[in-house]
Every structure is written in structure tokens, then in C-alpha cells.
Amino acid sequence: MKIFFLISAFALLSSVGICQQVLDGFSATDAEKQDELEQLFLESVNFSSFRHHLQTITEHPHIAGTPANDAVGEYLLEVMKNAGWDTRRYPFDVYLPNDPGTSLVEIVTPKRMPLNQMEYILEADRFSRHPDLHKGWNAFSGSGDVSGEVVYANYGTKEDFEKLAELGIDLSGKIVIARYGGNFRGYKAKFAEASGAAGLLIYTDPANSGYTKGLVFPQGPYYNESAIQRGSLLTENFTGDPLTPFEPALPLDGKVMVDRLDPEETQLHKIPVTPIPYASAAEILGQMQGMPVPAAWQGGLPFTYRLEGGAKLRVRVRVEQPIDFARINNIVGKLEGSTYPDEWIILGCHYDAWAFGATDPNSGTAMLLTLSQALGKLAREGKRPERSILIAHWDGEEHGVIGSTEWVEQMKHELGAKAVAYLNFDAGVSGKNIGGAAAPSLKKTMMEAAKKVDYPYADKSIYDHWAGDKPSPSIGNLGGGSDHIAFYMHVGVPSLSGGAGGPTLYHTNYDDFYFYENFVDPEFQMGGAVAQWAGIMALRLANATLIPYQIPRYAEDLESHLSNATSQIRQYDAGFDGFTATANAIADLKEVSLHTEKRMVNALEKKSLGPKQVSRINKELLGLEKSFLLEEGMPFGSWYRSLYASNDPNSGYASWILPGIQYEIANQSADGLEQWDQRYETAIRDLIDAINEIAGSLPPI
């Protein structure tokens, strides 16, 4: 599966008459030195190394918890150590299936027909015949052998299942077939099981990726009729290892013993679930005889989609999937800071994959290796960052964002005191289109750093290419689905996610090096460019005198999100008066933030801050995001502690900004709105107090 912060963008006339960025957190003099360092860094990035790393780590399929993935981890460890990073493994024993086991899908009546469950071997793509490739599978499926009539559930969202109930369609004992998209696949299984279904089949419809979009693989970048999206189904009300919520899944043979749940205490699915290609789905859907689907449910296969298959059409689904403890290993390297070693900038991407993982995730992995070599070269030349930079290669992400979560749970006290930011690059070089999402305090850093890096395929910067014909780039808000979750939503570390994307063969056996070099980036220029962008972000965060969070952005974004939430509520409660207390707090936050920002700029320009003042201010800055942490957590899961952001617990991927309020909206409820108004006001007042503490350490203007 499948973004940074920093600096104000004014223009400054330097002593040689060149227009140069003024950087948040730096004095003008220090910004000149930083500019010189950044030029050296840009020249240090070896673009050709990206291709070498990507080709090496995607030579074989490497699922989490397998020897093949361990071999990839060893390569990462070796490259990082050779680049001069203090690198170590962080092992965990987690409960997951690292092998699909056995499965079968067949039409039983009116005519028995076994259905294909694996990608075709293609003459053009040597990787497609690798002996270690598996059938399509969904990790954490239930095991069972079931047969039944068929019901089509569109995307299998909460709303789709509610629509089927409204239409009077009984799912008891039925085999549900749903297409990918609209939500995390685990929720399709959760809703199907809750509706009484006996089994679930999931497929990628050609309307979403296939011949309706363009040429299919190997002629083009879209799913062919045999391509299958694999993926986890894990849907606990927390993120990470299903047996150790809130605690790290430390090794079973280690010195520290961790209490683990019994698997029967978890919410693991009971019904068999497996993905199939759209050619196999067409054999089922094409024989259905029931009522035509609502217009929005029609897919791209060449016939009318129907809600039910009728009594004559029966399908069998059999899955036998073993689940047990497996060892996973995070590989984490540190380049210790020269001045503030206990303040950390962390960059990460996972390395485990469903097969080869050329775009997802290992384009991001190869990019971070390229970056580690460039930063290591600077350090050897005496240009070590002032704050420590960590680069993490996470394991077990594909099964449910497990490796990074266990590490955050293990390191949560240290992270609370030291982590400046987490930068995620999952599948970070999957195409040529720039994009990103970030916490409010990091959005400016991400965009300003993009101005410094050339876009490889046009005479413009990454920023200008990203913005397109708009005045500035569109930058999103973080949701679910990747390794930022625990950092941002559990322990309150400002986070971002970004890179370059495009059409991919997501989670299929075809996401291999052949696909990458033919359809993703044949010139192999984006890997180096994204490494430059990530490195500029990291270096600015690492070297700024004052941590360059964009403090006023909190009020700006909060105001917008609160207005949107109020409008949503008034759609079902016309008399709602609004979040008066929260709105007043945001107004105060805006005033305090702008005033404090001016004083920070003034203090830096006058160089009026001593080391103790700088240390005290940075400590306060590290605590800003934690103003949004609610000790008891969210009502949909106490593990999710951020009042500011969460993944949508009904879809998995989408972002819920102001999740306490969004939970009320999802339930069409007004009962808890007054309480949430008070909670959000309290959090914002805490943030104001923290900002005032910073202001109190600054000289007056």
C-alpha cells in the first residue's frame, strides 16, 4: 500500500543578490548555511542506486514472516550499516498467517466449474513464473468449506449492506461477491459476516482497474482478467498485532514476557474469504438472474449486474488458512545528531510484500536506501545533522500495520519525549504524479521542500508539478492504511505521507520489476527525485534552531473542519446551534499562534535565544500535537487517542478529522455533541497554553 514540514516561504535577497528561501526555524544567516548544505545533499543523491536497490529487493516474493522476507531485511541492514548508520533489528513475535494455506472457488450449479484463483504466466514477464508465487488470498480469513446462493454487494460498504437490507435481500447462508474499492477489504468481510453471509468473494472490477481504463498488463498498467488484489482482513478496534493491544509483541523467547490474548478473544473473522480475478467473477455475475442493481452499482463487465443469483446458481468457497506466531523484524538505523541527539526525525516505509512488491512497498524502501547513502556520505564528510535522523524499514505492515505499531508501543515513552516528526513513504515511488497528506504543522514543510527539488520530466520544481494549474498543491489529511497510524493517532507525533504515484498492479503477483521498468518509471528518475525531496524535509527539520512547525495552520484547518462537521450535523439536526465553545477556542488559538510565530521569527533574526531557551522552546514544541491526545481514547476504540485525526472505523482508509464528532455524525446522533464541544475546547485551550509557554520564553518584539 498504499509528506514534511518546515519552513516559511518568503523571498530574501542574499548578499550576492540571489533570491533565496527564508526557512522557518532558521535565522537568515543559518538559512544561507542550510542552503549550501542542501545543495551538497542534492548532489550526493545517486539516482542509479535506486534502480539497483529496487531490483535486488524485488527479485523474489517476500511475505512477512518468511525466510525470503528475512533475506530482504538482511540486505537492508547491510546497506544501512555500510552507509554509516547505527542499525539494528527490532524483533517481534506476532500472530498472523504467513502462508495462504489452501483454497478453492467453484460454481456448483447449474454447471460445475472450478474458477481460476491465480495470475496467468506471461511470456513477457519472467517474474510471473516464479515458483514461490501463491494464489490470491486474504490474510486473516476464517477457515471453512461453504456453498450457497449468491448476492452481489457492490463495494461491500456499510451503506451497501444497508441498501441490501432495505431492499429486503436476506444474506443468511449466502455467498456474497463484492468488488474492491470504497472501503478497506476487512470491513467488507466484517459487514458480510454480521449480515449472516456464509462466505465472501472479492474481486477488482474492470471499471476500477481493467480494460475500461486502458491497456491491461502486459500491454499496459491496468489489471488484466487474471490479476488479483491480495490483502489483510484484520479489523480489530485497534491497530497492530491482534493478541497484544497497547503492548509490544516482544519475542516469545525473550527476557520480557508480554500478556497475550487468546485468539478466541479477538475479532478475527470466522467466514471464509478469498479474492478472485474479474474473469472468474464474470463467470458468477454473468449467470445471476435477480433484480438489476441500482445504477451506481453497475460495474465494467459487459452485462447487466444483478443483486441475486437465484436458487439455481450455487457457489462453493473453501479456505483452510493456518494462523500462528511468526517472527517479524523491523530494521531501524540512526544517524545521531551533532547538537540535539535526543530529538528525532523518523522516516519509514515497510518492506514486506504480498509478492514482489515493486511499487508497494519497495519503491519506498529503495528510495530510503538511496537516501540513507546520501545522508551517510554527508555525515562522513563532517556534515552530520544537528538532530538525529532515523530511517525505519517496517515488517508486517501488509497484515495490518503491525511492525511499526509494535515498535511505537515498545518505544512510546521515548517517542513522546523525542520524536519531532514521522515521515512515511509507503509505495513512495509508484509513478510520476506527486501527492501527499500531513498533519497541520507539517503541511508547509512538505510543500516548501518540494520547491527545492527539480521534477525530472519537466523544467519545473516538484512543487510546481504538484500544483499543476493551481496556485498551490492540494495536500490531504492523513487517514488509515499505513505506518503513520501509531505515531500520529496513538502517541501524537506529527506525521506526513507522500511521494509519487500512478496506476499500479496493487497487491497482485504482477507488481514486479518488469512492471516497474516498463510502466511505472522506465527512466528511473523518480526514485532519486523523491529521495531528494524526503532528504530536504529531513534536513530542515533536523537543522532548524527551532523546530519549524507551522503553528498557525492548526487554527486554519480546525476552523475549516469544524465548519464542515457542523454542516454535516445540520443535515440531520436542523436545529443544531453549533460548537460554540470550540469555535471560540479556535478564534483564540488563531490570535495566539500568529503572535507567537512573529515573536519566533523576530528572536531568530536577532539571534537573541540562548541554548537553554532553545531547548525549552523545542521541548514545548514537541508537546503541541499531544494536546489532542485523549487518555480514554475514542468511543470506537480506546487505542485511537487523537482527538484530531483517526482512520474511519467504518471504512479503514478514509480520514476522520475531529473523530469524536465524526463518530456522532456516522451514527446520525446529536446526544454527545455538547460533550464533544467541551472536549475539543479543552484540547484547544491546552494547545493555547502550550503555545503561550513558548511565547513566554521569547523576547518581546
Automatic annotation (TrEMBL):
Domain Transferrin receptor-like dimerisation: 582-687
Signal peptide range: 1-20
Keyword field contains Signal: yes
Lineage: superkingdom: Bacteria
Family matches, as InterPro entries: PA_dom_sf, PA_domain, Peptidase_M28, Peptidase_M28B, TFR-like_dimer_dom, TFR-like_dimer_dom_sf
Domain Peptidase M28: 330-513
UniProt KW keywords: Signal
UniProt-listed Gene3D superfamilies: 3.50.30.30, Transferrin receptor-like, dimerisation domain, Zn peptidases
Chain ranges of the PA domain: 146-210
PANTHER family named in the record: N-ACETYLATED-ALPHA-LINKED ACIDIC DIPEPTIDASE, VACUOLAR PROTEIN SORTING-ASSOCIATED PROTEIN 70
Family to which this protein belongs: Belongs to the peptidase M28 family. M28B subfamily.
Protein name as annotated: N-acetylated-alpha-linked acidic dipeptidase
Species assigned in the record: Cyclobacterium lianum
